[in-house]
User: What shape does this take?
Amino acid sequence: MNITRLRFCAALAAVALGTAAGPAQAQAQAQAHGFPTKPVTLVVPFPPGGSSDVLARALTDKLSQSLGQPVVVESRPGAGATLGAAYVATAKPDGYTLLMGAVHHAIATSVYKKLPYDFDKSFAPVTTVALVPNVLVISAKSPVTDVKGLIAQAKAAPEKLSFGSNGNGTLQHLVGTQFASTTGIELLHVPYKGSAPLTTDLLGGQVDMSFDTITPVVPFIKAGKLRALAVTTARRSATLPEVPTLDEAGLKGFDQGTWFGILAPAGTPREVVARLNGEMVKIIQSPDFRKRMEDIGAEPIGDTPEQMAARIKADTARYGVLVKAANVVID
Assistant: This one.
């Protein structure tokens, strides 16, 4: 074999090896370049106390150790989680400013006539952290004990019953609207900036029901202060196995849960995204993190950036249809 052929074969082998190495090689490059060399900020677009905040802190506790730099959670709530997203979209694309994104951002694409960012083009997906079922809850002081009874109560007093959400255009808002439309009842929508203030008012009787994620309300359900009537996903929650699905309660077409995931600004170097993905997936798939998620009613995911991008694309289309049917539009 001559020298030219040997060089050609070596080049082919190098290309093949580079293709196979892919993400692992990118992670190594990020480490070689010293990322991170300073604290990383994870922006949570909801107030403290909600599912996104709980998941963010559970992840950053471990991520700080694995990256060797502090990972700080910063709350930037408002406008159905779009204010925090807008802040991260315009941040320097270097991996030091991240967003705890959620299904709400995919929905907002159809809900808002104008957004200060393009969710599809302004962000680089890193990984989906977890999926959290939503649950229909009311005060334990209410005489209502099931979905059928709630519908009857609402029909007897149109627009008297209210439901709270984490803000206009969020999944809770959309599910509540779909619930009212499906059952032929009229409900008053009360938007909040997040789960914590919503749950406080639900406990205090200022709002009658919510379709919030399980995480912030499960302690109050188990303490007997709130009553869970149904989950909005296709199957029951392992955290509340005795609570039926809306389908089992007689309402068809409900399969809505809230996913939460990490996104970086578009243009973030591939090797930095790969490093973040690799470290986060190891944490998310670890037994102790999985146990922590199960305790709060969350299903850990830990997928690739490509898989998260596909999830976002599918949900943007799926919820776009529901938004149009519910006529939920915000200027």
Q: What stands out?
A: Residues 27-132+257-326 form a domain with the D-Maltodextrin-Binding Protein; domain 2 fold (CATH 3.40.190.150). The radius of gyration is 22 Å. Residues 1-21 have pLDDT under 50 and may be disordered. The longest strand covers residues 123-133.
